[in-house]
Amino acid sequence: xxxxxxxxxxxxxxxGRNLRRFLSEKKIPVTTxxxxxxxxxxxxxxxxxxxLVEKNLxxxxxxxxxxxxxxxxxxxxxxxxxxxxxxxxxxxMISLCKKSKIKKIxxxxxxxVHPSTTFGYFISKFRAERQIIRSGLDYTILRASYIVGKDDxxxxxxxxxxSHGAIIIPGTGSxxxxxxxxxxxxxxxxxxxINKKLSNKIVDLVGPKTVTFASFANRFAKNxxxxxxxxxxxxxxxxxxxxxxxAAYGLDDLNILVGDYTGNYEKLERLCGFKIHAPxx
Length: 281
Ligand SMILES: NC(=O)c1ccc[n+]([C@@H]2O[C@H](COP(=O)([O-])OP(=O)(O)OC[C@H]3O[C@@H](n4cnc5c(N)ncnc54)[C@H](OP(=O)(O)O)[C@@H]3O)[C@@H](O)[C@H]2O)c1
Description:
InterPro entries: ComplexI_NDUFA9_subunit, NAD(P)-bd_dom, NAD(P)-bd_dom_sf. By secondary structure, the protein is of the alpha/beta class.
């Protein structure tokens, strides 16, 4: 462990912040890679970049054992689309690993990614996965369901809805999630770096229990003391397409939810050699 230094891109995002806290508690040195300055934990070295092809970036990453590549997006805008963020930046990160002699890359893809997918977000994650597999680097690709913890994106969305008085359930809400806690995710990411059993593997990153979205939303609403409101899927998609800033769920949030993606947590437990816990929701 003492010889390890872990580079984390997307270090200021939800998973990045939680992973860095975990690594800092384990006294593992980290090099962060972000486009803005952010608070540092103990044993961190910070790299702020304005573009990933900057000449001196690779030199600053020298000495890192692995890169945890957490830059990604699940929402497209005119200036930041899936190709640019999920595919091209992954390519840049692979080049940086090679130039700085980092031999291992850990990447969080999406649960449900499949070669025959026709869904743009999954296509971008699939293409990013392919680039990583073909790179010749040692890799672990984790296909994640919902990662939950303090301030996770789904909880933040539901909390925002609660502040307006109700939690919206699109359609019946019978589609399922398989949440995993960000604490377990941090432990698993470290395991990917140190445990050869996870070398060159694609593994589902899911918790041991599935839960319907309706039950997830009902529990959340009860805790916050607000109502749930069911709306038709047609209305949910109409709002996402025509009133994106006011819609409860984005277009691709809906696609992922309604897709009802579940996975195999036992393989992950077997490879890691420890139990994954159902998160407290
Ligand atoms: N959270 C989940 O439940 C979940 C599920 C499946 C897959 N994933 C994947 O896991 C990874 C981490 O997720 P997360 O929840 O931590 O996401 P997040 O909170 O949205 O963080 C994403 C990070 O990517 C960075 N980023 C986005 N666009 C960028 C760009 N154009 N250039 C440079 N940096 C950029 C952001 O930087 P700034 O801080 O500067 O904005 C942020 O640090 C992502 O690849 C995501 O797709 C997450």
